[in-house]
Amino acid sequence: MKPKQRGSEMNMLDRRSFFKSASTAALAATATPALAFQMPITETPDPLPEWFRKWQTLQVRWFDEGHDEDGEQNALGAILEDERDEIEQRIMNARATSIQGAVAQLDLAIHPDSFIGRVIGEDPRDRVVFENIRAALVGGLV
Fold it and tell me: How far apart are CA 105 and CA 133, in angstroms?
């Protein structure tokens, strides 16, 4: 009889181990996406927010300094436009590794002077989904 009892004790321990590990695995499976979303994927900071700030600066300079009195683009304007367009492409093609990076990409997408902003259109209804996603990210998802 003892061997049977010992076997059932082992079965009970195996079941306990299984349920303990299963509950830990379930917790890990549900927690991992939330933690991964909050943590940067790489050790280096996400460059997208800085790139977007640079894009904004170049955009302002292009409007303020990139045109002559007749409204024609001058040589500086051509340089600023090329640099701004290169940064815009970099922002659009990069993968965000932080919430701030995703927000920077959305800011570019809904900015009326960006290429993608012009594609989306001037009607505020065309931008609402992007603005709602941005607000959720900035406000913090529950």
Answer: 11
Residue 102, phi then psi, degrees to nearest 5: -65, -40
Helix or strand (DSSP H, E) at 88: helix 75-93
- Would you state the structure tokens that stand for residue 100, as one six-digit string? 């701030």
Residues 109 and 117: beta-carbon distance below 8 Å: yes
| Span between the terminal Cα atoms of the chain, in Å | 55
Q: How far apart are CA 27 and CA 125, in angstroms?
A: 39
pLDDT in tens, 38-76: 544 556 789 999 999 999 999 999 999 999 999 999 999
The token pair at 30 is 């549900």
Instruction: Please name the residues in contact with 127: beta carbons below 8 A apart, sequence gap of 6 or more.
Output: 110, 120, 121
C-beta separation of 100 from 49 below 8 A: yes
Task: Indicate the length of the chain as a whole number.
Answer: 142
Angle at 23 between CA 20 and CA 28, to 5 degrees: 125
pTM reported for the whole predicted model:
0.64
- 120 near 127, Cβ under 8 Å? yes
